[in-house]
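Worked example

This section walks through a single chain of length 146. The input is the sequence exactly as stored; nothing has been trimmed or padded.
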Amino acid sequence: MRMALEHERSEKDRQLRSYADLHNEHGALKRELDQIRKENDCLSRNCDNLSSEIRKLKLAEQAQRATVKDLMTTVEEQTKNIQAKEIEIAKLHNTIELLTKVNRVYEEESKNLSRQVETLLHYNRELQEKAFTEKNVAHLEQKQFQ
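Given that input, the structure is written out below as tokens.
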């Protein structure tokens, strides 16, 4: 009987130790579960925050794309305007060259006309002198006849 009691006591001690180990393990698992739940909550909040941030970034991206599209349209319009202005400038350069050539022709013609006017003025003076001389001669001859 003593053996049976000792065996029973030994069995109870083993069961108590086993229970204590299980109780300790249960507490550790409970703490670990609490920690995992806290980490899960933290990760869930981070996920929510990141989802919100992603939505904001997508909206910002859409706005940026719209802005880029508007700017590209503006660039295209300005490029067309610049091309039109370059064509206009080229036409004006051609007009300037043409007018410069015409101006040279007119200047040359003006010089020629000035020379002709000088020649005609000289010829006119000669004719006036000749007419004056002939008038004087005629006047003298008329005086001599009288």
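What to look for: The radius of gyration is 60 Å.
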